[in-house]
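RECORD TYPE: protein structure
NAME: Calcium-transporting ATPase endoplasmic reticulum-type-like protein
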Amino acid sequence: MVSACYTVLHEDQRAPFWKLVLKQFDDLLVKILIAAALISFILALINGETGLMAFLEPSVILMILAANAAVGVITETNAEKALEELRAYQADVATVLRNGCFSILPATELVPGDIVEVSVGCKIPADMKMIEMLSNEVRVDQAILTGESSSVEKELTTITATNAVYQDKTNILFSGTVVVAGRARAVVVGVGPNTAMGSIRDSMLRTEDSKETMVYLQNALTVMTVEVTPLKKKLDEFGTFLAKVIAGICVLVWIVNIGHFRDPSHGGFVHGAIHYFKIAVALAVAAIPEGLPAVVTT
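PREDICTED:
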């Protein structure tokens, strides 16, 4: 008995907008900048400073972080739209062999082992292996999957090559592609997430959840994913290293100037300490590449 694994790509619940926004601030360098902005704001209040110039530095930092967050949210929103577009390529019905005759049934009822007949204009309802050609040739438009500009001729010859790419599988009709010439019968070999289109969707979901690399080609449906790229690892290591170096330098700058805290120009030891602490904070802000998060996520 064949297990019913229906050929439908279920719609996942979209992340709330506020979660997307908060996600953009989940970065070590960004957190350091937020802390620097808050410290700068508090120091301005302690010193009794007023006016726009007193809070210019924290305002600029927060504006830059807000711009970075906006870029990140837009990028992730576009990725979610691409996931939704995948659902549009699902076939609604299929001509299936049931009880000895071909019937038109909802494509969601297909299971592996079903015999399906396709002809010109049909959207392929599942990944299927051709078993019979009812015309001289069968051509399929699979640009949404491979990016090929012209239709591909399909044949009955079985491909024996290991690790064959989609373009080499000329005996397979892929879910979501469209028949542009000919008529044939095929047996269902993959449905739902077990199709080429389903695997692309799953890869995109894994990419979004684990911050993997995503590359869109052609119609944003050819996707390349990697678990964690060497670039991402290096950037994470760089962020941690930079944070430690900046913290060390700022503390060192503040400690070196302890002898100047009592300078009469500062109006006392406490005010002197605050003055050089502000210098240390400014140094940290200057050393951190504020645009790095936006560059990495786009």
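COMMENT: The chain is about 45% helix and 15% strand.
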